[in-house]
Write a structure and sequence with these properties.
Blueprint: H1 2-15, H2 19-26, H3 34-75, E1 85-88, E2 94-97, H4 99-118, E3 148-157, E4 177-185, H5 186-190, E5 196-198, E6 201-203, H6 205-212, E7 227-229, E8 232-234, H7 236-241, E9 245-248, E10 253-256, H8 259-262
Antiparallel strand pairs: 1-2, 3-4, 5-6, 7-8, 9-10
The protein binds zinc ion (2 copies).
Length: 263
């Protein structure tokens, strides 16, 4: 009895460490719980190995498949991978290599063109001005005037300096000019005589603005009046509100309403 229990203990203790030792002790013909341990342990190792190899194979196959499809798509066109190339084939027909890249390139070029059109070129050498209309002195979206458009860059002459937009530089020489950025309401620019839109530029703007800044509005008595009427001048919003004048949309001119009919 004593040896049996001792042996049992020995088995359990050593069996954990080495399989070979456990097998040796089985051959001694002892009865007990040892046999199941011997059967169970050995098959575990090959099973694990087999499973692992299977996963490895699957992964390998998958990787091979991916690499093959990448090679098929890009391998041959390695040199022109980034480029969309238009090739003339033998039949004198045009073939586009890398159509996706071609489409992307066209899209990017179009975006760039549009961005350039709307991109505002900010000039650091211009004097900063108040965000007001350079003609009527009103701010953006006042009454029904809508947004201010700009910035436009003009040389403001010292003679009729637009003080309402920015202070005249202290050391400004006589008859000199200084670059300022200006904004205008769409309607104020539209009704300003001889200021025309060409492409995205306003022609004559600089020259005419320096004249308008020397003209006072007969309604609000402020500078920047552009619309002539009977030898006097008006701002667009002042003309809109004044009951004595009428704006002719077909000719972009302003007329006074005879005193009798205005009553
Ligand atoms: Zn205005
Ligand atoms: Zn006015």
């Amino acid at each position: 009895m004593r040896t049996k229990t001792q042996h049992k203990n020995d088995n359990s203790a050593e069996g954990d460490v080495k399989v070979g030792d456990t097998e040796m002790k089985m051959e001694e013909g002892e009865e007990g719980v040892v046999p199941p341990l011997v059967i169970k342990k050995p098959p575990v190792k090959p099973k694990r190995k087999y499973k692992k190899r299977k996963v490895d194979d699957e992964e390998h196959e998958e990787n091979k498949h991916i690499s093959k499809s990448i090679q098929q798509r890009f391998g041959k066109n390695k040199n022109t991978q980034e480029l969309a190339v238009i090739k003339h084939t033998k039949n004198q027909t045009v073939k586009i290599v890398n159509p996706d890249a071609h489409d992307n390139m066209i899209e990017r070029a179009e975006e760039l063109k549009i961005n350039k059109m709307y991109q505002v070129e900010l000039r650091s050498d211009a004097l900063p001005t108040a965000w007001k209309c350079a003609l009527c002195h009103q701010r953006t979206c006042r009454d029904s005037l809508g947004d201010l458009f700009g910035p436009y860059y003009v040389q403001a002459e010292e003679k009729h300096w637009p003080e309402f937009l920015t202070k005249k530089p202290a050391k400004m020489a006589r008859s000199s000019s200084s670059l300022i950025d200006i904004w205008m309401h769409g309607s104020c620019a539209l009704w300003a005589p001889d200021v025309h839109m060409a492409a995205n530029q306003l022609e004559n703007l600089e020259e005419k603005l320096n004249i308008f800044w020397g003209q006072s509005c007969f309604v609000c008595h402020q500078s920047g009046a552009s619309i002539p009427v009977d030898g006097k001048y008006l701002h667009f919003p002042c003309a809109m509100k004044h009951p004595g004048v009428v704006l002719d949309q077909s000719t972009f001119t302003c007329k006074t309403i005879p005193a009798e009919s205005s009553r």
